[in-house]
Amino acid sequence: MRSILICLLLNTATQSIATARPTVRQDSSVTVLSASQISEWTIPAYLASAAYCPGNTIQSWNCGPACGNVSEPNGIVTGGDGDFVQRWFVAQTSDGTTVLSISGTNTSSIESIGIDIDFPLVEVDETFFPDSTGVELHQGFYGAFKRIQGGILAGVVAQARQGDILVVGHSLGAALTQITATYLQKQFPARVVTAKSFAPPRSGNKAWADYVDVTLGSNTGHMINYADDVPHLPPRPWHFQHASGEIWILKDGTTYEACGGRENPVSL
User: Fold this and answer.
1) Running DSSP on this structure, what letter comes out for residue 254?
2) pLDDT tens for residues 63-97?
3) Which residue, 125, 170, 183, 224, is most buried by CB atoms nearer than 10 A?
4) Which residue range or ranges hold the Fungal lipase-type domain (predicted)?
5) CA dihedral 202, 204, 208, 213 (to 10 degrees)
6) Which of 3.40.50.1820, 1.20.200.10, 3.30.420.10, 3.40.390.10 is the CATH number of 2-259?
7) What is the layout of strands, in order, in the sheet containing 220-225?
């Protein structure tokens, strides 16, 4: 499933955008993205796919199409085991951007699957997220974040101390993308941290969505295919809510809509 979803994202990200009628949604307006706007997601999609590869193939930048379609970055730092600890890598691109990519669920690992179904909401530590009263995160995702936080911070610090930071990920890695990007923006307030995630599940409560929106603003976005169930989990009645920044891929597979607000109902 993971490879199918990533391939779908990569294939559709390079297609032209068809003209679409406006669709009414809750909270805010909808904007049909241009081909050039969609192309900005192509490299992040390849980077998100690369995070599933073992660390040694990332270090040699020899992880198949995901690496082959991206210029080899510098200063690669890797971590994780693909089971209880998500795989990740930090590197620096030729334009000076620090890139962090975090892998999603390893569907062959019971430990990895267990992270996804550890649903209870738990309060966050203000050491990681200052001024976060009332903020709660999915217990499994929060635990996964804490297991990679130290290594990622060291990896980011090992790169140049300036320039933008781009965080990408798919599925479970997409949830961790949002969490980690928010954390890094607090750690490096003078730098611009951008989160681009693919098929993220909901990662926290409304207070968390508010916190993300205030911290990252327009620099967070998540791409969702209409046929994917993962972004609808955990269910909203369990007090989970997505942050802003949704980009919806319509049923025709060629139309991408940037949806203002949060949790916008979709007309397929």
Assistant:
1) S
2) 999 999 999 999 999 999 999 999 999 999 999 99
3) 170
4) 99-236
5) -10
6) 3.40.50.1820
7) 30-32, 256-259, 246-249, 220-225, 193-198, 165-170, 98-102, 88-92, 74-79
